[in-house]
């Protein structure tokens, strides 16, 4: 069995105006994430982890923020496309472990819905997607509520034939 591990990290600034979407879930909050697409920091990290594990580069190569086609795009579409790219190389997702770094809003009420959304897109059992969240104890730009970051680690496998 061919096994690969990938990691992904993303950071977006919190600003007034856009809706806040993390892990494919809209969260009621007065601030949203600034970005070319919907700025879903968690799904962007997951896409980078998938692409990296399969040796396919990163999200910016596949969905450049200079391309107007991706303006305002729902990041679940990015995730669906990335799933197809890794499957084209013969890989399947074994599991995914993610961490969201946010001082506010609280992520715990939304983690199950995020995991469910990601599991649905990747066609995984929900117990194969783990979402964790932490604050930075009021330190740095995250602690000052100026941004949100996310990290993702994925395990891919390919049965040798």
UniProtKB/TrEMBL annotation:
4-CDP-2-C-methyl-D-erythritol 2-phosphate binds at residues 10-12, 36-37, 58-60, 63-67, 134-137, 141, 144. PANTHER family: 2-C-METHYL-D-ERYTHRITOL 2,4-CYCLODIPHOSPHATE SYNTHASE, CHLOROPLASTIC (PTHR43181:SF1). The keyword Metal-binding applies. Its cofactor is a divalent metal cation. SUPFAM superfamilies: IpsF-like. It comes from the Bacteria. Pathway: Isoprenoid biosynthesis; isopentenyl diphosphate biosynthesis via DXP pathway; isopentenyl diphosphate from 1-deoxy-D-xylulose 5-phosphate: step 4/6. Its EC number is 4.6.1.12. The keyword Metal-binding applies. The record marks 36, 135 as: Transition state stabilizer. GO terms for molecular function: 2-C-methyl-D-erythritol 2,4-cyclodiphosphate synthase activity; metal ion binding. A divalent metal cation binds at residues 10, 12, 44. Binds 1 divalent metal cation per subunit. Involved in the biosynthesis of isopentenyl diphosphate (IPP) and dimethylallyl diphosphate (DMAPP), two major building blocks of isoprenoid compounds. Catalyzes the conversion of 4-diphosphocytidyl-2-C-methyl-D-erythritol 2-phosphate (CDP-ME2P) to 2-C-methyl-D-erythritol 2,4-cyclodiphosphate (ME-CPP) with a corresponding release of cytidine 5-monophosphate (CMP). Keywords: Isoprene biosynthesis, Lyase, Metal-binding. This is 2-C-methyl-D-erythritol 2,4-cyclodiphosphate synthase. Pfam families: YgbB. One of its GO terms (biological process) is terpenoid biosynthetic process. Homotrimer. Belongs to the IspF family. Residues 3-156 form the 2-C-methyl-D-erythritol 2,4-cyclodiphosphate synthase domain. It catalyses: 4-CDP-2-C-methyl-D-erythritol 2-phosphate = 2-C-methyl-D-erythritol 2,4-cyclic diphosphate + CMP.
């Amino acid at each position: 069995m061919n096994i690969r591990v990938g990691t992904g990290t993303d950071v977006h600034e919190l600003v007034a105006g856009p809706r806040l979407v993390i892990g494919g879930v809209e969260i009621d909050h007065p601030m949203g994430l600034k970005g070319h697409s919907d700025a879903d920091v968690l799904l962007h990290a997951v896409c980078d982890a998938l692409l990296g594990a399969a040796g396919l580069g990163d999200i910016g190569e596949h969905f450049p923020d200079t391309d107007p086609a991706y303006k305002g795009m729902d990041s679940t579409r990015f995730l669906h496309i990335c799933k197809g790219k890794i499957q084209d190389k013969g890989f399947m997702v074994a599991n995914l472990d993610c961490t969201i770094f946010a001082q506010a809003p609280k992520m715990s009420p939304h983690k199950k819905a995020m995991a469910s959304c990601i599991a649905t897109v990747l066609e995984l059992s929900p117990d194969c997607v783990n979402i964790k969240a932490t604050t930075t104890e009021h330190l740095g730009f995250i602690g000052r509520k100026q941004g949100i970051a996310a990290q993702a680690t994925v395990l891919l496998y390919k049965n040798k034939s």
